[in-house]
Design brief:
2 helices, rRNA-binding, protein biosynthesis, alpha+beta, RQC P-site tRNA stabilizing factor, RNA-binding, about 20% helix, about 90 residues, five-stranded antiparallel beta sheet
Length: about 90
């Protein structure tokens, strides 16, 4: 599954266009490398996403084309949340 679609389906980012923009700005890393929106995501991958002054690290648990809102949180596990700067 494409990275931008995973971010949207898992509800880490609300809209796919926003996920694409964030990724193109270099604020998403896949397994330690800066990722492109079209990068392939699979279970076991580690994502780092910069949200403003916060860096969130998650592990991909499963990939699905569509899930209900209640199940979206099961697609990933948050490993770490840390502040940046200040």
């Amino acid at each position: 599954m494409r990275l931008d679609k995973f971010l949207k389906v898992s509800r880490l980012i609300k809209r796919r266009t926003v996920a694409k923009e964030v990724t193109e700005q270099g604020r998403v890393w896949l397994n330690g490398r800066e990722a492109k929106p079209s990068a392939s995501v699979k279970p076991g991958d580690e994502l780092k996403i910069q949200f403003g002054q916060k860096l969130v690290t998650v592990r991909v648990e499963r990939v699905a084309d569509s899930v209900r809102k209640e199940e979206a949180g099961e697609m990933y596990t948050i490993l770490k949340e840390e502040g940046i700067g200040s």
